[in-house]
Amino acid sequence: MKIHMRPDPWPETWQFDPDRFLPEQVEKRHWCAFLPFGHGSRICIGTKMAMTMMKITLCSLLREYEMQIF
């Protein structure tokens, strides 16, 4: 989507910066600045399946590792 490459809500679009999704950064942007699956009547029909697959994958990965809580 070209909306994710606009420089006004996303400075340095090609740079990896996970801090862009911190709560204080999200509050500064318009709510439509990040639409990975679209919105409204044109929303991706695979949205729920994709989210479910991501959760299953994450659970499968975490099950393979021993977590140590300090």
Automatic annotation (TrEMBL):
> A GO CC term?
endoplasmic reticulum membrane
- Compartment(s) of residence: Endoplasmic reticulum membrane; Microsome membrane
Q: Name one GO molecular function term.
A: monooxygenase activity
What is the membrane topology listed in the Swiss-Prot or TrEMBL record? Peripheral membrane protein
**What role is this protein assigned?**
May be involved in the metabolism of insect hormones and in the breakdown of synthetic insecticides.
Give binding positions for heme. Answer: 44
Question: Does the record carry Heme as a key word?
Answer: yes
Q: Where does the protein principally reside? A: endoplasmic reticulum
Annotated keywords: Endoplasmic reticulum, Heme, Iron, Membrane, Metal-binding, Microsome, Monooxygenase, Oxidoreductase
Q: Which Pfam families match?
A: p450
- Family of this protein: Belongs to the cytochrome P450 family.
Q: Which SUPFAM superfamilies match?
A: Cytochrome P450
Q: What is this protein called?
A: Cytochrome P450 monooxygenase
Give cofactor(s), names only. heme
Keyword Transcription assigned? no
Species per Swiss-Prot/TrEMBL record: Tenebrio molitor (Yellow mealworm beetle)
